[in-house]
Design goal:
It contains eight helices and no strands. The protein has about 240 residues and is mostly helical. The chain has one domain.
Length: about 240
């Protein structure tokens, strides 16, 4: 049996990838429909979803028009930190959150250093505008996972008698944790210049599944906003012998 043509495989991969990317429209639509009910943190998450939507369109346009879109995804790496950091800036009650703007500034500066200095040292004349910023990716994932874990700790400290799966921010946190923990290795593979077609074929379907899970869970979180939360522990009925 003849091996499938690489162009056919590439088209299939891109088709699957586009379907996964389009799933971001679900949380954007539901989020705007429930805009008047969103807290400041949830609005920051909606802005992030809108940013993902716009930058995905810009990235695909640049890829087709200029055969270049690296800078688009590098900007996404920076903006993700600010938008998702905003979600937890408005949600966390730790005093540590007052340092979030400073952390965002330092992270942005590090991304620029990674782009124009570290990549120049590692790749010679080929600067970071044409290569992936692996160090920035690692730092971003570590920071975001740490912030999400801080939120989980806060949730454990302030246990409530409502089901956590009905809490929008908790649902978002689970979705983001799974996504960033699952995509770190994939993004590092994506930025590897020695990546093979076989590795690429294996990477895109996994990334697409993670995108579907993230976007569908975000859509569910926006849908939960304003819904009456189900209590886990009902108060005990009054005693007839009191």
């Amino acid at each position: 049996m003849p091996a499938p043509d690489s162009d056919v495989i590439t088209r299939i991969i891109h088709g699957v990838y586009y379907v996964g990317q389009c799933s971001i429209l679900a949380p954007v639509f539901i989020g705007f429909r429930r805009w008047h009910l969103l807290s400041s943190g949830m609005r920051a998450m909606l802005y992030c979803c809108l940013m993902w939507t716009v930058m995905s369109i810009v990235g695909e346009f640049c890829r087709h028009a200029f055969n270049y879109n690296v800078i688009v995804w590098q900007l996404v790496d920076v903006m993700e930190m600010w938008f998702i950091g905003g979600v937890y800036y408005y949600t966390l009650q730790f005093r540590f959150r007052r340092y979030f703007p400073l952390i965002g500034v330092l992270y942005t500066l590090f991304a620029l250093v990674d782009m124009f200095v570290i990549n120049d040292v590692l790749h010679g004349m080929q600067n970071g505008l044409f290569t992936g910023n692996n160090y920035t990716l690692v730092v971003k994932h570590i920071l975001l996972v740490t912030i999400i874990l801080l939120y989980f700790e806060q949730s454990l400290r302030h246990l409530r008698n409502v089901a956590l799966e009905r809490d929008p921010v908790f649902v978002i946190s689970v979705a983001l944790l799974v996504f960033y923990a699952g995509t770190l290795v994939l993004f590092l593979v994506r930025n590897n210049e020695s990546i093979t077609l076989k590795s690429y074929v294996l990477t895109i379907p996994v990334l697409t599944v993670l995108n579907f899970l993230l976007n569908s869970t975000l859509a569910w979180a926006f849908w939960l906003v304003g819904k009456k939360q189900k209590k886990v522990l009902e108060p005990a009925p009054p005693s007839h012998f009191a």
